[in-house]
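ok so for the tutorial part 2 we go from a plain amino acid sequence to predicted structure tokens. step 1 is just haveing the sequence, like this:
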Amino acid sequence: MKTLFALGVWCLLFVLCWPLAILALIAWPFVWLISLPFRLVGATLSAVFAFLSAVLMLPARLLGGGRQPAAAR
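step 2 — the prediction. this is what the tokens look like for a chain of 73 residues:
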């Protein structure tokens, strides 16, 4: 659905101002290449925070925090 929307917006831009639409079509791969390092840093930071959360919550999980015994249900 996102791709269809982007195609529709590009077609509208092509009808309204075709030089800008062609420039956007040519520039998009370069924008994608420039944004790659930022996406990698974001994925790395997300993984680091997930790991830290898991490490900090490990003692509570080992001690059974947040769970009720089966007999109490």
